[in-house]
Design goal:
alpha/beta, four-stranded parallel β-sheet
Length: about 280
């Protein structure tokens, strides 16, 4: 039989979203990432991961059950789950079900860059999400930005800018963000709060030694408050956070007269700043 020429569809055969192909890629992709059933499980797992909105306990097996049994069709459905619904699922007890409901509630109040990263916009990793949050200060401006405005952001080139524009020009994705807001989602830095208003804006921290919360987590929390986290101590350093077995950076801090915080003082500072 004669072979027929394949014509790439203009819309996704599963969800109807536009099919896009970025200039540097051979692959064409569906742009309905938050909406498309074919991408649903991975979109939820990406959203829930620790470096994103951090929904503790929401792993592969549970997400598979929730999607396969029709309990979740899109991200906002996560926030409609209750302990009674979760408790009847396989390998789920009442206590673990309640823990997940609590984790879901906590995840509604995260930082803007974590939320941006959680959306799974192609080519938008953690560092790009941080720069976008830093430059724009609120979600609405990012959603409405054109490629020219996005290209003015450090770490954003033509491919990334186009990917962001494509994502937020898809009505399904905008609808999901709106529904997440209606479920109580509040992302620090969104509601017109620019970086200059953040509590630790303009302050430089250096982390040294072992911290029980983890260096990555400490860095993330500091940056969310507007602080810069540097790799070495200098006269421009405002604070050094010293964990167990702190080394030469601590010595340098003492030498330069830089304020040193132990982990307890650091955690107290985070508590005061409410993050």
């Amino acid at each position: 039989a004669a072979a027929r020429e394949f014509i790439m569809p203009a819309t996704c055969p599963v969800c109807g979203s536009r099919v896009v192909r970025l200039p540097d890629e051979a692959a064409a992709r569906c742009s309905g990432g938050l909406f498309c059933p074919a991408q649903r499980k991975q979109a939820i797992l990406h959203f829930a991961q620790r470096r994103a909105v951090d929904i503790e306990g929401l792993g592969d097996k549970l997400v598979e059950q929730l999607v396969d049994e029709g309990l979740i069709h899109s991200l906002p459905d996560l926030y409609k789950l209750d302990a009674a619904t979760l408790a009847v699922l396989e390998r789920m007890a009442e206590k673990s079900a309640q823990n997940i409901v609590d984790a879901l509630e906590k995840s509604k109040h995260t930082t803007l860059h974590r939320f941006l990263f959680s959306l799974g916009i192609r080519h938008v990793g953690e560092s790009t999400a941080k720069e976008l949050a830093r430059q724009f200060g609120n979600l609405d401006d990012i959603m409405q930005a054109d490629t020219e405005r996005l290209l003015a952001v450090p770490d954003v080139g033509p491919v990334v800018a186009q990917s962001i524009v494509d994502f937020f020009s898809e009505a399904h994705n905008i609808e999901v963000v709106q529904q997440l807001r209606e479920q109580g989602g509040r992302w620090q830095g969104h509601e017109g709060m620019g970086t200059l208003e953040l509590p630790l804006s303009g302050k430089t921290f250096v982390l040294t030694g072992a911290l029980s919360c983890g260096r990555d987590e400490a860095k993330s929390r500091l940056e969310a408050l507007g602080a810069k986290v540097a790799g070495s101590v200098s006269k421009k350093t405002d604070y050094v956070v010293a964990g167990n077995e702190a080394g030469s950076k601590l010595d340098k801090a003492h030498e330069l007269g830089v304020t040193v915080l132990d982990e307890q003082q650091f955690l107290q500072l985070m508590e005061e700043k409410n993050i």
